[in-house]
């Protein structure tokens, strides 16, 4: 069996960067800030590459929507082992307003166009945390979905997926084609090695615009305000345990 | 890696003994009277060719500031190269964060096998090997950035990687035939085969020309037979491929005379007769393997001669000159590590009711550490960029960067320990290992002492050549009027204490005072250097007290130039850090200017001359006596 897999990988502000709100309070500062691939998407790429290494998958296609720099994210995916990339160009200004529904439509169109039988994405992006793209993509394609996967196994013509749910694990079967979203414990993504990064420069990245796929990216939401989380207030020191208990009672914590 | 250096001394001796001596000896008559009409010797032609050097350091010996390689601060990487490099940084840092334990490597005196394997997978053994041979294909500037990360994290790993690619197989990269490259590069690039550089011998250290290993061509002409032993070979116990230097009978095609000359060979352990001693016990870089290597009737196919028979010395020099900037890169990373430790401590430690970074003593230490980092980093990137731009005139600069950065790293790490007090002395803090590890950088690849002489003597030789050109011009004044008048004006101005307006062009206006200081220092330096040549002639070679002071001035001059250039770049680009950098540059140049003045005065003043002759006498007395001479105050 040889599947074609489409993997979504989003360029986000690096997890280690301290986020700062823009002066206009309509977003966060992104200029000159280190970006990298959304960690959950790294897990998705890793899983696709592992499936390829097990000869279950024939081709891994990495897709990213975003400005020119999104190509760096695709290059990382290619260096990790993806075969080729698709860059759906969305200018930085519009990217701020790109919603999961838009991305889902893009992924769905691409899945059809490429005749992919499996779409893997991270369960959520660490910037907007919407956790919606996998579900919407499955809905649009009318494919089964296996979200929050922590283990994927191919059996006959279906996937057996173990999902992390509240209070335990759930094992489900999904028929192919399907959409899977990767959870944290699905795997530990490899790091691209230096020679592979160099080789990845030769792999192909196809460029297109949402309109080329017939997807309209008119926003459905408007951001009214972005604010910092409230600053932590200073605490007080107490003399002894009795005072501590008293104070806690005063503020209604015990 | 530790063993080879020494060439330098050999080189200086050869070049200077042969080339400079006649140049210098004639200097005394240069201005006074035209030399007797004579043939222009082969050597003189050589010197004339060298006169086009674009090296700043070379030209300050003539009192002129040639800054085209330095100003504006070179920006060599294309956008694509930058993007690629940025992608490489993550995996490299991650390796050190997650796969490598420097403290453990130090304690087991080896790099853990899983760590070695990760390094191979990462591609760290072939950073500059072209992609078509399975390497990463980095240029020098990209390599510098990654070596900084290595130097920040583990110098033991750094030496293992450096001995392998910076010198071990570098000869194959830069002078190898296509066949040699195709045969050896793919395996060394992946780290499947480790490489080593074998030059130093028990009786041959700084004087590399005196090696005794010998390779003799077999009667059928198909192979050489190598015998000899090498010491202190980094990776000596691990390597499969060696770049070996040995004496070999060489017949000069012109004269027909046969004598031993150094030839470089690519030797595989598999050739047979290659063995090695146990790993040496060392002060630092314990994780890096250092061993003796023996060759006993090792048969080397003739096609494994590297760079042509009899050219071994040149090959060795090219390899070392080419790799020297890498040590400054590693040291820059080390400085950053030690500085960060000190800064983190100083900004959290409270004593006498205040954070210690609020005290002037600590503030001065922190600022000076950051200044040393700024200079080292600026030198490293300037030189790697010059090399990437195709410059051939970077050898003195590279030697200076190695001296400067290795000494700066020592000072910074030492001061970091001091800032941290008792905590700095504790092994757990991670600075004592770094101090031990980095000590070797002042010794190997040309000791800093040898490199200083190399800088001073090469520069003087160059200046000597120019004086001779003037001498030649005086023979035919009509045809060379421009040259003579130019020199004449320069000298006349100096004679009446009137320098050229003297500033360095291209420096940001905010630093114009510093540019002027540097410009004047360059001129004063050139004047002093020329004076020394006039006074001492060829015997300047033996005036090491003076040469060292010239070299120290060179280091300060070049350091000042690079910080001014870099700070100007930041100011021009309006970088967020530009004000900070401006302050660093200003303090650096002010203080460097004072030191230069002190050193140049010492070269000339009668008090210093007396001091030097006393120091010489004291040393002779000590050597003769064989112990401390002064009696104890107690008398017993």
From TrEMBL, chain A:
Presence of keyword ATP-binding: no
Gene3D superfamilies (alphabetical): HUPs
GO cellular component: mitochondrial matrix
Record keywords: Electron transport, Mitochondrion, Transport
Molecular function per GO: electron transfer activity
Family, similarity comment: Belongs to the ETF beta-subunit/FixA family.
Keyword RNA-binding set for record: no
A Pfam family assignment: ETF
Source organism per UniProt: Cherax quadricarinatus
Residue ranges constituting the Electron transfer flavoprotein alpha/beta-subunit N-terminal domain according to the UniProt record: 25-217
InterPro entries in alphabetical order: ET-Flavoprotein_bsu_CS, ETF_a/b_N, ETF_b, ETF_beta_N, Rossmann-like_a/b/a_fold
Transmembrane regions: none
Xref: CDD domains: ETF_beta (cd01714)
A GO biological-process term: amino acid catabolic process
Highest classification ranks of the organism: Eukaryota, Metazoa, Ecdysozoa, Arthropoda, Crustacea
Assembly information from the UniProt record: Heterodimer of an alpha and a beta subunit. Heterodimer composed of ETFA and ETFB. Identified in a complex that contains ETFA, ETFB and ETFRF1. Interacts with ACADM.
Source taxon at top rank: Eukaryota
Protein purpose: The electron transfer flavoprotein serves as a specific electron acceptor for several dehydrogenases, including five acyl-CoA dehydrogenases, glutaryl-CoA and sarcosine dehydrogenase. It transfers the electrons to the main mitochondrial respiratory chain via ETF-ubiquinone oxidoreductase (ETF dehydrogenase).
Subcellular location: Mitochondrion matrix
Protein name (database record): Electron transfer flavoprotein subunit beta
UniProtKB/TrEMBL annotation, chain B:
Stored InterPro entries: ACAD9/ACADV-like_C, Acyl-CoA_DH_CS, Acyl-CoA_Oxase/DH_mid-dom, Acyl-CoA_Oxase/DH_mid-dom_sf, AcylCo_DH-like_C, AcylCo_DH/oxidase_C, AcylCoA_DH/ox_N, AcylCoA_DH/ox_N_sf
Membrane topology designation: Peripheral membrane protein
Reported cofactor(s): FAD
Keyword Nucleotide-binding applies: no
EC numbers for this chain: 1.3.8.9
Compartments it resides in: Mitochondrion inner membrane
PROSITE patterns: ACYL_COA_DH_1, ACYL_COA_DH_2
Chain ranges of the ACAD9/ACADV-like C-terminal domain: 509-626
This protein's pathway: Lipid metabolism; mitochondrial fatty acid beta-oxidation
A GO-annotated cellular component: mitochondrial inner membrane
Subunit description: Homodimer. Homodimerizes after import into the mitochondrion.
Family: Belongs to the acyl-CoA dehydrogenase family.
The protein, known as: Very long-chain specific acyl-CoA dehydrogenase, mitochondrial
Organism this protein belongs to: Cherax quadricarinatus
């Amino acid at each position: 069996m040889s599947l074609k897999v489409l993997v979504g990988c989003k360029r986000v502000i690096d997890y280690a960067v301290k986020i700062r709100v823009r002066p206009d309070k309509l977003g966060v500062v992104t200029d000159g800030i280190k970006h990298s691939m959304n960690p959950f998407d790294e897990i998705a790429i890793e899983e696709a590459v592992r499936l390829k290494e097990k000869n279950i998958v024939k081709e891994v296609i990495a897709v990213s929507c975003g400005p020119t720099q999104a190509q760096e994210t695709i290059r990382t995916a290619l260096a990790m082992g993806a075969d080729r990339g698709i860059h759906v160009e969305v200018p930085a200004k519009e990217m701020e307003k790109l919603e999961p529904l838009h991305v889902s439509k893009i992924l769905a169109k691409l899945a059809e166009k490429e005749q992919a039988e499996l779409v893997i994405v991270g369960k959520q992006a660490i910037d907007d945390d919407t956790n919606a793209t996998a579900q919407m993509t499955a809905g649009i394609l009318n494919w089964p979905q296996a979200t929050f996967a922590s283990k994927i196994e191919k059996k006959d013509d279906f996937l057996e997926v173990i999902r992390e749910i509240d209070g335990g694990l759930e094992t489900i079967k999904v028929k192919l084609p399907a959409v899977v979203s990767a959870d944290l414990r699905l795997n530990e993504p490899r790091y691209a090695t230096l020679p592979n990064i160099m080789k990845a420069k030769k792999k192909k990245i196809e460029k297109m615009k949402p309109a080329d796929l017939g997807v309209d990216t008119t926003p459905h939401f408007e951001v009214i305000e972005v604010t910092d989380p409230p600053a932590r207030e200073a605490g007080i020191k107490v003399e002894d345990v009795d005072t501590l208990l008293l104070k806690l009672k005063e503020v209604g914590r015990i | 890696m530790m063993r080879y250096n020494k060439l330098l001394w050999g080189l200086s001796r050869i070049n200077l003994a042969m080339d400079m001596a006649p140049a210098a000896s004639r200097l005394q008559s240069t201005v006074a009277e035209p030399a007797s009409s004579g043939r222009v010797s082969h050597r003189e032609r050589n010197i004339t060719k060298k006169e086009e050097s674009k090296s700043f350091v070379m030209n300050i010996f003539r009192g002129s500031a040639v800054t085209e390689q330095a100003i504006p601060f070179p920006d060599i990487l294309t956008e694509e190269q930058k993007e690629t490099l940025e992608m490489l940084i993550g995996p490299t840092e991650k390796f050190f964060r997650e796969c490598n334990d420097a403290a453990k490597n130090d304690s087991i005196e080896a790099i853990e096998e899983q760590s070695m394997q990760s390094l191979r997978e990462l591609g760290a053994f072939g950073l500059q090997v072209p992609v078509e041979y399975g390497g990463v294909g980095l240029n020098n500037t990209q390599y510098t950035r990654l070596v900084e990360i290595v130097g920040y994290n583990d110098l033991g790993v750094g030496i293992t990687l450096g001995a392998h690619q910076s010198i071990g197989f570098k000869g194959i990269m830069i002078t190898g035939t296509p066949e040699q490259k195709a045969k050896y590069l793919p395996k060394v690039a992946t780290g499947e085969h480790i490489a080593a550089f074998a030059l130093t011998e028990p009786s041959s250290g700084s004087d590399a020309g005196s090696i005794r290993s010998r390779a003799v061509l077999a009667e059928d002409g198909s192979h050489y037979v190598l015998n000899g032993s090498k010491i202190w070979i980094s990776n000596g116990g691990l390597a499969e491929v060696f770049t070996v230097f040995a004496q070999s009978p060489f017949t000069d095609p012109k004269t027909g005379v046969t004598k031993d000359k150094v030839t470089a060979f690519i030797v595989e352990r598999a050739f047979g007769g290659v063995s090695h001693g146990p790993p040496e016990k060392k002060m630092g870089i314990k994780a890096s393997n250092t061993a003796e290597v023996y060759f006993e009737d090792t048969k080397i196919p003739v096609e494994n001669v590297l760079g042509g028979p009899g050219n071994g010395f040149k090959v060795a020099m090219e390899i070392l000159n080419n790799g020297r900037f890498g040590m400054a890169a590693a040291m820059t990373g080390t400085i950053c590590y030690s500085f960060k430790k000190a800064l983190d401590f100083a900004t959290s430690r409270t004593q006498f009711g205040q954070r210690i970074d609020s005290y002037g003593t600590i503030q001065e230490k922190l600022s000076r550490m950051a200044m040393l980092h700024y200079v080292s980093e600026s030198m490293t990137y300037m030189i790697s960029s010059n090399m990437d731009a195709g410059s051939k005139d970077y050898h003195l600069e590279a030697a200076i960067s190695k001296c400067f950065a290795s000494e700066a790293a020592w000072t910074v790490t030492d001061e970091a320990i001091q800032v941290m007090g008792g905590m700095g002395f504790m092994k757990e803090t991670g600075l004592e290992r770094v101090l031990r590890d980095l000590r070797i950088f002042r010794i190997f690849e040309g000791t800093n002492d040898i490199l200083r002489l190399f800088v001073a003597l090469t520069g003087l030789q160059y200046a000597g050549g120019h004086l001779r050109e003037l001498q030649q011009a005086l023979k035919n004044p009509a045809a060379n009027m421009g040259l003579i008048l130019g020199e004449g004006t320069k000298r006349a101005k100096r004679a009446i204490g009137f320098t050229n307006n003297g500033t360095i062009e291209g420096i940001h206006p905010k630093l114009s005072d510093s540019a002027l200081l540097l410009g004047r220092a360059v001129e004063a330096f050139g004047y002093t250097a020329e004076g020394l040549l006039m006074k001492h002639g060829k015997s300047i070679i033996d005036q090491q007290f003076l040469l060292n002071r010239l070299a120290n001035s060179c280091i300060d001059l070049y350091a000042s130039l690079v910080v001014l250039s870099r700070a100007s770049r930041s100011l021009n680009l309006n970088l967020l850090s530009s004000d900070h950098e401006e302050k660093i540059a200003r303090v650096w140049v002010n203080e460097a200017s004072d030191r230069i003045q002190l050193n140049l005065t010492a070269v000339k003043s009668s008090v210093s001359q007396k001091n030097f002759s006393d120091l010489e006498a004291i040393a002779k007395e000590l050597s003769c006596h064989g112990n401390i001479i002064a009696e104890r105050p107690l008398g017993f």
